[in-house]
Amino acid sequence: MKNNLRVLLAKKRQKVSDLAKETGLSKSALTALYYERTKRPDIVTLQKVADYLGVSIDELLTPED
Fold first, then answer.
1. 62: which strand partners?
2. HEC per residue, the chain
3. pLDDT 10s digits, 39-51
4. Vertex 45: Cα angle to 11 and 64 (nearest 5)
5. CA dist list (Å): 6 to 26, 30, 56
6. pLDDT tens-digit readout, 15-47
7. Of 8, 24, 47, 53, which sits most exposed with the smallest number of CB within 10 A?
8. Distances 56 to 2, 28 between C-alpha atoms, Å
């Protein structure tokens, strides 16, 4: 599963540290998600990120080919 976190943050001109501050999620967890190192991200984490970015989880995630 790939994610669009990089693209969505870039569009908003935000950093992972901004996202961590606003959502209360750990920077290390968000960095792992950003660099697609997380194999199975937690649904609560994904929902908080999607809510902050104003997108659905479907828009945040992209299935791999």
1. 2
2. CEECHHHHHHHHCCCHHHHHHHHCCCHHHHHHHHCCCCCCCCHHHHHHHHHHHCCCHHHHEECCC
3. 888 999 999 999 9
4. 65
5. 17, 11, 15
6. 999 999 999 999 999 999 999 998 888 999 999
7. 24
8. 15, 22
